[in-house]
Amino acid sequence: MDLQTLPTDSLASFRDRIHGRYQEFRARGLTLNLARGKPSAEQLSLCQELLALPGKDDDLSAAGDDVRNYFGEAQGLCETRALFTGLLGAPIEQIILGDNSSLAIMHDVIVYALLFGLPNSPKPWSKEEQITFLCPAPGYDRHFGICEGFGIKMIPVPMTGSGPDLNVVEALAAEDPTIRGMWCVPRFSNPTGDVYAEETVERLAAMPTAAPDFTLFWDNAYSVHILTDDAPELANVLEAAERHGNPNRPFVFGSTSKITLAGAGIGMAASSPDNVTWLLRHMGRRSIGPDKVNQLRHARFLKDQDGLHALMKAHRKILAPKFERVHAMFSELLSGTGAATWSEPTGGYFISLDVMDGCAKRVVSLAKDAGIAVVPAGQTFPYSQDPRDRNIRIAPSFPVIAEVEQAAEGIALCTLLAASEKVLAERG
Ligand code: PLP
């Protein structure tokens, strides 16, 4: 039943019926949170063993270094880097391990680029009149927050379902020398779940850019976070960029925040040999080195890449049913109404809900009144400006499954209420 084609009197009674259901929902007095993509307690418990590792008699790395002390290997323990060659698509020598947050490494790369310039920069970014980043949107609010904090101009680029619209990206990057960077979450984008197609990766790696130091901030936060058997693979951007003569273009980032412990994981970066040398030089001034005990702890716990993938399967068992419940509830209440569309991701942590244009703020505020927290409308866009006021990011990982289902029901009711109010208002 498409709301747009309902006769006005039927639409008004539909709106009243949904309003009644919404009031009943509100009266339940629930407190539900679908705002941040946090692992649930059940997921964190998969890694409980980490809290007791490496153990009181285990303090030597494979190279024989005492992890309790300061020592070389600023890049991180070899055995721990070896766990992530597949995840990052890079050899051990091109991987740098940091402390727990990959976002901190991305932030620092931008700070160093501003202060000193990247290997291919004519001068530090801060000495340029303007620095601009391309921002596939909807995207990750914290990426946009870094740019906003440093006064980096952001240009939103639409997503297509298999990555950003490359015709827009290529045209802008070729003509505008202020464009120095682009945020990419290439496998299971936050929040749309897009996996960049092979052709997208190739074109990003190969495209001519007006700036000599144009950089892909390739945030592969969810690269191994599969939810279904048909999740598409991602092409290797480092190899593609090297093949096309642009080896310094991508910086790949990742972390174990949603593999092991979000509060005590390992952040990491991989790039070309030049970029790795550049980053290590600047990181080496900032710190003697990150937490080596945590690196050894992770090596002991994950053991090898098979161990990592086995753990991801256990996460999937917990996560996939939550995503399925949201889809089932949205399908039951929203299908055919024209009130919303939503992504059905094959991995990652989010569902991207597009409500009727001009309704996202209203839906979020109705949800808040009914005890459901989601990120504020607009936050998935640069400057928190969703031009169509329609996108809402749903993060089903943290609550228990019964709560996920209730929250999805509540959000669907808010979506229907806002849409029917809007269509009625338009008819006057
Ligand atoms: N990148 C993306 C795309 C994310 O969604 C998140 C967390 O939600 C992060 C990075 C944060 O990662 P970390 O904990 O490694 O800083």
Describe this structure in words.
This protein starts with 7 loop residues before the first helix and ends with a helix. Helix 1 runs antiparallel to helix 14 (401-427) and helix 12 crosses helix 14 (401-427). The model has no long low-confidence stretch (mean pLDDT 97). The chain has two domains: 3-43 and 309-427, Aspartate Aminotransferase, domain 1 (Alpha-Beta Complex), CATH 3.90.1150.10; 75-303, Aspartate Aminotransferase, domain 2. The strands form three sheets. It has a seven-stranded mixed sheet, sandwiched between helices. A three-stranded antiparallel sheet has the order 9-10-12, with helices on one face. It has a two-stranded parallel sheet with strand order 1-11. The chain has 14 helices and twelve strands. Helix content is 41%, strand content 12%. Residues 37, 101-103, 140, 185, 190, 219, 221, 255, 257, 267 line the site of pyridoxal-5'-phosphate.
CATH class category name of the largest domain = Alpha Beta
CATH level 3 topology of the largest domain:
Aspartate Aminotransferase, domain 2
Q: State the end-to-end CA separation.
A: 21 Å
- Total individual domains: 2
Could you report the average pLDDT, rounded to the nearest whole number? 97
- Numbering strands along the chain, what is their spatial order in the largest sheet? 2-8-7-6-5-3-4
Number of strands: 12
% residues in beta strands:
5-15%
Q: Helix count?
A: 14
CATH superfamily membership of the largest domain: Type I PLP-dependent aspartate aminotransferase-like (Major domain)
Provide the list of bound ligands, each named once. Answer: pyridoxal-5'-phosphate
Pick out the low-confidence regions: none
Radius of gyration: 23 Å
Q: In the CATH classification, which architecture of the largest domain applies?
A: 3-Layer(aba) Sandwich
In this structure, how is the largest beta sheet organized? Answer: 7 strands, mixed
- Helix proportion: 40-55%
Give the overall shape. globular
